[in-house]
Amino acid sequence: AFLRAGAGSTLVSLWKVDDTATALLMRRFYENLAEARAGHTEGPPGERTGTSHALQDAKQWLRSVTDQFGNRPYEASYYWSAFVLLGNPH
Description:
There is one protein chain. The protein is of the alpha+beta class. Helices cover 38% and strands 11% of the residues. The chain has a two-stranded antiparallel ribbon. The longest helix has 20 residues. It is globular and about 45 Å long.
């Protein structure tokens, strides 16, 4: 419905995911997206930009988050693989 209404893309979750993991992932995703749209990405122009890359980086980042004990509580795919991008990846 969002795509038919004119949204370029929609980020959705395929199942219920942990609230803390989702908040961390979404914060990182939107930071990445804002940087890409402002032209502050690393690498050659046009590389690692766009919505799909913002999501990919956020997922990789969430997998590497460590707690105060050095554990990676969100490394399991349950926490990050539910999120998919529908529509235009740019």
